[in-house]
Design goal:
Elements: H1 2-9, H2 11-17, E1 19-23, H3 25-34, E2 38-44, H4 51-62, E3 66-70, H5 74-78, E4 87-92, E5 106-111, H6 116-129, E6 133-137, H7 146-152, E7 161-163, H8 166-172, E8 179-183, E9 189-190, E10 200-204, H9 213-217, E11 221-224, H10 236-255
Parallel strand pairs: 2-3, 5-6, 5-10, 6-7, 8-10, 8-11, 9-11
Antiparallel strand pairs: 1-4, 2-4
Helix pairs in contact: 3-4, 6-7, 6-10
C-alpha cells in the first residue's frame, strides 16, 4: 500500500516506473475499454458483491490482471479522491511519443498549464471535439496526476497525449502545411475568423500569465476569443474547449456532414 500512495503523490516515481494509479470504476472501465496495460487491480472486499465491480474484476481476470481484495477502509487511506472509491488500479502510463503524433486536424499544446482540473478538462474536451492530440510542455502539470486523471473522465485513454519540450514540439510540427497559433487574451485574430480546417498547432498558456512574448513570436499567428462582458480573461480549460469546438464546427460546416474526428489510430 505504501507504493500505491507514493505513486499517487510523487510524479518522479510515476515516471521512473512508467505507471500511474487510476481511481474509481469509471476510470478503470475506460482503461479496460481502451486496452491499457494493467499491472494490478485493487478492490474493497465489501464492494466485490456489487454487479459493476464484479464485472470489472471479471474483465480484468480475463486479461490476466492480478486482482487484490483489501479489507474495508484500506483504499480510503491510499486513494487521493475525497469520495471513497471501491476500486483502483495501477496501469502503464497512456503516453504517446511525440514522434508518433501527426499534424492532421488540431493539436493543442499546453505550455505551463499547472492546474490539474484545467488540464483534465482540456483533454476531455479535446476527446469530445476530435482533436488529434494534446502535448504538455514547459512546467505543465503531470497529465497522470490523480486529479488530472479524474478530470479527464476517461478521455486520457481515448486521445494521444505526449509530454515534450516546446522546442521539440514546434520542431516536430514544423511544416508549410501546418499553421502555428499562439493564444492571447486580446489583440489576436478572432477564432471565428481563423481557418481551423487547416492542420493547426495551437499553444495554450499559463492560467495567470498566459504566453510570454518569446513563445508568441515563435508562432505564425495569434488567436483571441471575443468576449462581450467585463471579464478579464477566460479559464484556460474553457478557452481551449471553445477553440477545440470551433475547429470541429468549422470542419462540420465545410464538409456539410457530421464531422469525423481527426484522431487516427497510431
Amino acid at each position: 500500500m505504501r507504493r500505491l500512495r507514493r505513486l499517487i503523490q510523487k510524479r518522479s516515481l510515476r515516471w521512473s516506473e512508467g505507471v500511474c494509479v487510476i481511481e474509481g470504476p469509471d476510470l478503470v472501465e475506460a482503461a479496460l475499454d481502451a486496452g491499457v496495460e494493467f499491472e494490478a487491480l485493487y478492490v474493497d472486499v465489501e464492494a466485490l458483491g456489487r454487479e459493476r465491480i464484479s464485472a470489472l474484476c471479471a474483465r480484468g481476470e480475463g486479461r490476466g490482471v492480478r486482482i487484490f481484495s483489501l479489507l474495508a477502509g484500506v483504499l480510503d487511506k491510499v486513494a487521493d479522491a475525497q469520495t471513497a472509491q471501491p476500486v483502483l488500479a495501477v496501469v502503464r502510463l497512456p503516453l504517446v511519443p511525440l514522434e508518433q503524433l501527426t499534424s492532421d486536424g488540431l493539436v493543442l499544446v499546453l505550455h505551463d498549464v499547472r492546474d490539474p482540473g484545467n488540464a483534465g478538462t482540456i483533454i476531455r474536451s479535446s476527446d469530445a471535439a476530435g482533436v488529434s492530440s494534446v502535448v504538455f510542455t514547459g512546467q505543465s502539470v503531470d497529465p497522470f496526476n490523480p486529479k488530472t486523471l479524474r478530470a479527464t473522465a476517461g478521455s486520457i485513454f481515448h486521445i494521444p497525449v505526449a509530454v515534450a519540450t516546446l522546442d521539440a514540439t514546434l520542431e516536430h510540427f514544423s511544416s508549410p502545411e501546418v499553421q502555428t497559433i499562439a493564444t492571447v487574451v486580446r489583440g489576436g485574430d478572432s477564432i471565428r475568423e481563423l481557418d481551423l480546417t487547416r492542420p493547426s498547432v495551437v499553444v495554450i498558456g499559463n492560467e495567470s500569465e498566459g504566453l510570454d512574448d518569446e513563445v508568441i513570436a515563435r508562432c505564425a499567428l495569434t488567436a483571441s476569443i471575443p468576449m462581450a462582458g467585463r471579464s478579464e480573461s477566460l479559464n484556460a480549460g474553457v478557452a481551449a474547449s471553445l477553440l477545440a469546438f470551433e475547429a470541429l464546427w468549422q470542419r462540420q460546416d465545410k464538409n456539410l456532414a457530421s464531422p469525423r474526428p481527426s484522431l487516427k489510430t497510431l
